[in-house]
Structure formats: structure tokens, C-alpha cells
Amino acid sequence: MVSSNWRSIVPLTYLFVLIMLTGCVQTTYPKARVANKQKSLESYITLGMAYLQRNDRDSARRNFEKALDINSNSHQAHNGMGLLYQLTGEVGLAEKSFKYSLRQKSSFTEARVNYGAFLYQQKRYEEAYESFERSSKDLTYDRRALVLAYVGQTALKLGDRSRAKSAFEHSLNVDNTLSLAMIELALLNFDDQDYASSKRLLDQYTSIARPSPKSLWLGIRIERIFGNKDKEASYALALKNLHPYSKEYLEYKKLLGQRVLENGQK
Predict the structure, then answer these.
(1) What's the average pLDDT block by block, 10 residues per block, for the chain (266 residues)?
(2) Phi–psi pair at 58, nearest 5 degrees
(3) Alpha helices for the chain (secondary structure H)
């Protein structure tokens, strides 16, 4: 009796297990496929960005296109294509890609910043300023200090020195090691005849960044004001050797010409 019941129960139990396993396969397999597609999408985008940084444009394009094959509406892939088109000088396609990316996800700050940089490059400063300002409101964005510096630079292009100065100060409050904001604020302080603050910022900049035409030319003028001829000469030599074709070096040569003229009149 027991044996008979056991034989009748086993097939039913076995069937029940099969049904449960089948159900699991039917419900988890599509989820696994979706997860794998998402992982592949993210991998292609990451690779595309890496190739862009190495200026390997063909490889970047291939990876972004593979990402778009998986998801034609990927805001990240369209952002990558925008950067690629910008590099290759395809202005219309770049703008179209950035706008499409932002239509898919308006809160995608990375694309908005890149679009702002694109607009700045095209000298569309008012639109660039609006894009950077909006991006700077994203408190979670990991490069917010840099975006605030971009706000400052664009404000300068629009002739708004007050907004530029406050943006650079805000940028350094967020990240006190950002060299771009340091040198720009140092230049503004110099123009405002706040030479001590300008020198302090320039010294900070020099300790963390490579000498640029802006920083060397500013150093020449600051050390001249403070009467430090040795440091002035050191900045001047570096400007001549490192950036002989810069507009700053031309400004320095004009200064030398003025000095010769002044000495000749004495």
C-alpha cells in the first residue's frame, strides 16, 4: 500500500519540480538577457570614451555604434557621438547628437557640459553660458568646480566681470586646487590692482600646474610691481623659451620696447 502510494506520488512531485523549473527559466532568462545587454551597452560606451581620450576616433566610433545597435536611444552613446563629431569637425552632427542625448535625459549633466563646451567653441557664448550655469546647479556632479570655472570664462566673454569673479571664487570654494580658476581669478585681481591676492593665487597655481603663457606674463608684471627683478627675469626667460609665439610674449616684447623708449628719453 505504501509502495503503491509512493509510486503515484513521485511522478506528480517530479512533474511539479519540472513545472517550477520551467517557470523559473521563463521568468529569469529574459531578465538575464536584459542584464547582459545593459552590461554590453555600458562596456561599449566606456570603451568608446577611452578611445576618444586616446584620440583613436575610428575605434571610438565603432564602439559607440555598437552601443547604439543595442539601444538606439542611449543618452550616453549619443553624448559620445557628439564628442566624436566635434573632434572631426562635423558641427551639425555634433549639435544634433548632444541635443538628442539631452532629450533622452535632460538631467544628464555630462552631456549638458559637453554641449556647453561645444557652444563655447562655436563662439555662441550666451547659449554656452546658459548651459554651464544650468550644469553648475547639479550639486552631485563630480566636476562641478570645473563647470563653475567655465561659467566664469564664459561670463568674461560676455563682458560680465562681476559674475566671472564670483564664479571663479565659487569654483575654488568647491575645489581649492583647481588651477584654471586660480589663474583666472589671479588675473582679475591683478586688473583690480589687488596685487597681493593676485600674487598669492599665482604662487598657488605655480606650485601645482605647468607654466602657461598667462601665468608667466602675469608673473612678469607682478614681480615688476613688487620690484623683484630676478624673479621677473626668470618668468621672462621661461616665457621666451616655452611660449615664444604666444600673444603674451608679444605683449612682453612691447613692454621691453616701452622700457627702451623710456630709458632713451631720460
Answers:
(1) 40 37 45 78 97 97 97 98 97 98 98 98 98 98 98 98 98 98 98 98 97 97 96 97 96 81 55
(2) -65, -45
(3) 2-53, 57-70, 75-87, 91-104, 109-121, 125-136, 144-157, 161-174, 179-191, 195-208, 213-225, 229-242, 247-265
How far lies 83's CA from each of 32, 87, 210, in Å? Answer: 32, 6, 26
Say what the pTM is: 0.83
- C-alpha cell of 78? 549619443
What's the Cα-to-Cα distance from 258 to each of 139, 244, 254, rounded to whole Å? 49, 19, 6
Instruction: Show the cell assigned to 50.
Output: 577611452
Instruction: Spell 31-66 as b/e; 16+ CB within 10 A means b.
Output: eeeeeeeeeebeebbebbbebbeeeeeeebbebbeb
Report how far residue 241's alpha carbon sits from residue 231's, in angstroms, rounded to the nearest whole number: 15
Torsion of CA 173, 125, 249, 214, to 10 degrees: 0
Task: Write the DSSP symbol of residue 244.
Answer: T
